[in-house]
Amino acid sequence: MAFSSLSFQQQQNFDPNAKVKAVFLYNFTRYFEWPEKMKSGNFIIHIIGTNNSLYNELNKMATSKQVGNQKMEIKSSTSLDASIKPHIIFLLNESSDMLKEISSKYKGKGALIVTEKGGLAKSGSAINFVAVESKLKFEYSKTNAVKAGLKTSDELKSLAIAVD
């Protein structure tokens, strides 16, 4: 009995797109410039919500990749943790109701906000994952990236579904 409930729990936390999302998140780091004060210490990606598949994929990546000269560090919590000073905040679908609070709290502080629920790039996130014809794509709001205190590359716009 315990085995079947364990496998059900694993299925609930399984994300078939976790590897693709992890690669996207890492690649996004090439298109943004973080403020000077964010260029020392570890490069922190903070996942808000529960996605064990994504967390594991990012941790695997963190063992072999860096962002510039910064080691990657992956944090995960079910709510906003003020002690974490993230470079990227990934608000999972279940946590998207926190977007307004998070975009307000991190305005101008150099945190890239990434979401995965329809319409959120128009509501405060800079990057929003969407499924288009069964493929994972992303929306991009340069306005929201600039509000977050990030310098952006126009190159990213050509890869994204632009919302502004």
Could you tell me the strand content as a percent range?
Answer: 25-35%
Contiguous uncertain segments of 5+ residues: 1-12
Structural category: alpha/beta
Q: What's the number of domains?
A: 1
Q: What order do the helices and strands follow?
A: HHEEHEEEHEEEHEHE
Could you estimate the helical fraction of the residues in percent? 25-40%
The average pLDDT score comes to 90
- Trace the largest sheet across and list its strands: 3-4-2-5-6-7-8-10
Tally of DSSP β-strands? 10
What does this structure look like?
This protein is an alpha/beta fold. The protein has a single domain, classed as Rossmann fold (3-Layer(aba) Sandwich). Helices cover 32% and strands 26% of the residues. It contains six helices and ten strands. The strands form two sheets. The chain has an eight-stranded mixed β-sheet with strand order 3-4-2-5-6-7-8-10, sandwiched between helices. The longest helix has 11 residues. The N terminus is likely disordered.
